[in-house]
Write a structure and sequence with these properties.
The chain is of the alpha+beta class and 195 residues long. 24% of the residues lie in helices and 37% in strands. Strands 1-6-5-4-3-7-8-9-2 form a nine-stranded antiparallel beta sheet. The longest helix has 10 residues.
Amino acid sequence: MNQEIEATFLNMDYDTVRQRLMQVGAKCEKPQHDMFRVVYDYPDLRLDKIAAWVRVRREGDKITMTFKHRQAETIEGMKEVELVVSSYDDACAFLEAIGLVEKARQETRREVWRLDECEIMLDEWPWIPPYIEVEGPSEIAVKAASKKLGFDYGAALFDSADGVYQEYFDVTRTEISTVPITFGPVPDWLEAKRR
């Protein structure tokens, strides 16, 4: 499996971050675009029990099918295997044919910049403030890019989106990973759990 080396910075103002990115010579590789994903597990949620999941994601110009496994909440704790596939619907049908079931549907928006060896992703998820992910080939590269952008590396989060949601809502990972996350009103039950 490949290692995902990524740091997440919460509560970011995109206009300020874009100015910093341009000041340090970063290039916008992909303007903001919508992304759609379906997250899968077995009916008994055995992947959830080991902090793993399978997803199919439409990323604007490409479609990926990914197995992700969070082995630790550290910068090197996420492992993944990702394939580029030709059909979103066929990838979903394949997973369902082998016994996986849809766990949740999610909508997000993303803008991708390149700074040195790193990708800087401006992520917008429903119901929470915008955040930034800095992903690179090593922790040294991620730290260097974060420093150039003025991010407080000591405040970085090393987690997936469900961990980000836990910063804003008093929910378990299973609760937030099984609710449809779409650009619309916050479900009443979730709003009642806002921190």
